[in-house]
Automatic annotation (TrEMBL):
This is Limiting CO2-inducible protein B/C beta carbonyic anhydrase domain-containing protein. Residues 17-229 form the Limiting CO2-inducible protein B/C beta carbonyic anhydrase domain. It comes from the Bacteria. It comes from Chryseobacterium geocarposphaerae. InterPro entries: LCIB/C_CA. Pfam families: LCIB_C_CA.
């Protein structure tokens, strides 16, 4: 598949986002027995316009999405957002939460930027992550500095500051910063899920890296987690093997 090779230099198990959603919905139907219209979908993704432009159409077969995410996909909607959307779910269905920081990869495999519609040069992707990384490298992030004027960006800066050594010594800093961001989002989603009340049988958690390509490449995705929790028994099972098979 065209351009997939450029993406797989960085993310060896990446698929196009269209294939990703098709596999996701097929796996849920086969192993949990639920159709798309029984799934109340929330996403925690960056508010960057490129994510709306490259959103896979079949995802709209699910109910939603309810947007939990702000800059770089951190679930800034918090417990209020999680509980609000939890009460919209069909009683015989499931909640599905897709969460992912995003990163750009160009046709030639350059990571951290993309060519956007109507622009001649490349621009940063994720811009917030690259901005926070720039401040981290320059030693400009102050421990505990979170303002109301730039709350979301300041939160990302703090996440990066707490992993400063790991990010700055990495072979590729923006790749590593995105991994750090994924871990922070994953940890927060797990906390929010424990705090919320869902009037349905299952919660499905899908964690990933969402990869934006150049304007004529489309988007891609590499899963890191695909779990479902039976709320009646509290049993949890991974469907990653089934998803990739």
């Amino acid at each position: 598949m065209e351009h997939l090779e450029s993406v797989r230099k960085w993310y060896p198990k990446a698929l196009t986002s269209i294939d990703t959603v098709n596999r996701l919905l097929d796996t849920i139907e086969k192993y949990i027995g639920l159709k798309p219209n029984q799934l109340m979908h929330a996403d925690s993704m960056c508010c960057d316009d490129v994510n709306a432009i490259q959103y896979p159409p079949r995802a709209y077969e699910m109910l939603g999405p309810f947007h939990l995410g702000g800059l770089d996909g951190f679930p800034f909607a918090g417990i209020t957002g999680m509980n609000a959307f939890a009460h919209h779910v069909p009683e015989d269905g499931a909640v599905i939460i897709f969460y992912a920081p995003h990163i750009g990869i160009t046709k030639d495999g350059t990571i951290g930027e993309i060519s956007r519609i109507g622009q001649s040069g490349n621009s940063a992707c994720c811009g917030a992550a690259k901005g926070a990384l720039g401040k981290l490298s320059a030693g400009q992030i102050i421990e505990g500095n979170i303002t109301s004027l730039d709350f979301q960006m300041n939160t990302i800066e703090q996440i990066f500051l707490h992993q400063k050594g790991r990010i700055l010594t990495a072979e590729n800093q923006i790749f590593e910063a995105t991994e750090v961001m994924y871990e922070a989002i994953d940890e927060r989603i797990e906390v929010l899920v424990k705090e919320a009340n869902y009037p349905c049988k299952y919660v499905i958690l899908v964690g990933a890296i969402f990869i934006n390509g150049d304007k004529d490449m489309g988007s891609f995705c590499q899963y890191k987690k695909f779990d479902y929790i039976n709320l009646e028994t509290q049993q949890r099972k991974s469907l990653m093997t089934e998803y990739y098979s």
